[in-house]
Automatic annotation (TrEMBL):
Residues 8-238 form the ABC transporter domain. It is found in: Cell inner membrane. Transmembrane segments: none annotated. The keyword Cell membrane applies. PANTHER family: MALTODEXTRIN IMPORT ATP-BINDING PROTEIN MSMX (PTHR43875), TREHALOSE IMPORT ATP-BINDING PROTEIN SUGC (PTHR43875:SF15). Its main location: membrane. One of its GO terms (molecular function) is ATP binding. InterPro entries: AAA+_ATPase, ABC_transporter-like_ATP-bd, ABC_transporter-like_CS, ABC_transpr_MalK/UgpC-like, Mo/tungstate-bd_C_term_dom, NA-bd_OB-fold, P-loop_NTPase. Coiled coil: none annotated. This is ATP-binding cassette domain-containing protein. Belongs to the ABC transporter superfamily. Keywords: ATP-binding, Cell membrane, Membrane, Nucleotide-binding, Translocase, Transport.
């Protein structure tokens, strides 16, 4: 299947509903062949942005370009893209084959070409034995494959996905993440994927666009948004558990922090970068969760609660303990604005290994 030079450019896009801004001056470029994920909590504007790209809604201001061309006045059928919805949107009275072929029939593609494409896509998706069944006879994962097959068979270079895995259980979601990514890479699709699930974003994305309250907080690779969050929102949203944030005053006089860090800053530390030490700030243990390979230790330093991740093989901490952290792994933020202060970044800090294995259904 061929793809054109698909690229999506969002330029100063806003969307107002009355006096409420669902999107506020959003600009981002999504590259050809990338798996780009719009990630954020409910109500952040990610689905609104996806609908604007699709042409299902119209922006209040700004421009949307696909392949360099302004598509603001084009209907969805003229934007050279396909879409997979959260509900799958399958026709219950049609067979799997008829559901997959529906769009091609509407576009009056010849019968011979329709059947040739169906054979190819059904084999790719593992749906060949199921083509005669109705959607009610399929599992959730099989229905998801049918919806994806209907998008892929269109041979459109861009595929938009609106939380397509949210109706599946945890194990099936994990399996489908691998399948979706493999299909996207095999076909070279430009995918724009909406989710509130950071595990989906971190495991599938080439680029993550973190959104909050109608604005973009950060754009970067999974490694970048995890290791170097641009704002305290990203620091608190990405990671399981998220980054710990300490008022700078709690570390006053401690070794290991850059000069100039104090009351005007927040210190961010990932749970896996904190360890028990012979000296350092002294915290009180509040609880311990056993997770198999490791333990999560809930503790308190002054009036700030935090979490430390430790190997399960290590002795549990005492009721009161001193702690340190991996030098250069700290993130430092402006306490007033919430923005990352890059002048304090350690020049040789390596990316911490992210741990997103503890998924809940």
């Amino acid at each position: 299947m061929q793809t054109s030079q698909a690229q999506i450019q969002i330029e100063h896009v806003s969307r107002l509903f009355g006096q409420t801004a669902a999107l506020d001056d959003v600009s981002v470029s999504l590259s050809k062949g990338d798996f780009s994920v719009l990630l954020g909590p409910s109500g952040c504007g990610k689905s609104t942005l996806l609908r604007l790209i699709a042409g299902l809604d119209r922006q209040t201001g700004g421009a949307i370009r696909i392949g360099g061309e302004d598509v603001g006045d084009r209907p969805p059928s003229m934007r050279d893209l396909s879409m997979v919805f959260q509900s799958y949107a399958l026709f219950p009275h049609l067979s799997v084959a008829e559901n997959i072929l529906f769009g091609l029939k509407v576009r009056k593609v010849s019968k011979a070409e329709r059947l040739a494409r169906l054979d190819l896509v059904a084999a790719m998706m593992g749906l060949t034995p199921l083509l005669a069944r109705k959607p009610s006879e399929l599992s959730g994962g099989q229905q998801q494959r049918v919806a994806l097959a209907r998008a892929v068979i269109s041979e459109r270079p861009i595929c938009l996905m609106d939380e397509p895995l949210s109706n599946l259980d945890a194990k099936l979601r994990a399996d489908m993440r691998v399948e979706l990514r493999a299909i996207q890479q095999k076909l070279g699709l430009t995918v724009v994927y909406v989710t509130h699930d950071q595990i989906e974003a971190m495991t599938m994305a080439d680029k993550i666009i973190v959104m909050n309250a109608g604005r973009i907080e950060q754009v970067g690779t999974p490694e970048e948004v995890y290791a170097r969050p641009a704002t305290i929102f990203t620091a608190g949203f990405i990671g399981t558990p998220p980054m710990n944030l300490f008022p700078g005053r709690l570390f006053a006089g401690q070794d290991g922090l850059p000069q100039g860090v104090g009351d005007a800053q927040l210190i961010g530390l990932r749970p896996e970068d904190i360890h028990i030490a012979e000296s350092g700030p002294e915290a009180d243990t509040r609880g311990i969760e056993y997770l198999g390979a490791d333990r999560l230790v809930s503790a308190r330093l002054g009036d700030t609660d935090f979490i430390m991740r430790a190997p399960a093989s290590a002795p549990p901490p005492p009721a009161r303990f001193a702690f340190g952290w991996a030098q250069g792994r700290e993130s430092i933020f402006d306490a007033a604005t919430g923005a990352r202060l890059t002048q304090f970044d350690h020049p040789t800090a390596s990316n911490p290994k992210k741990d997103l294995t503890h998924e809940t259904a």
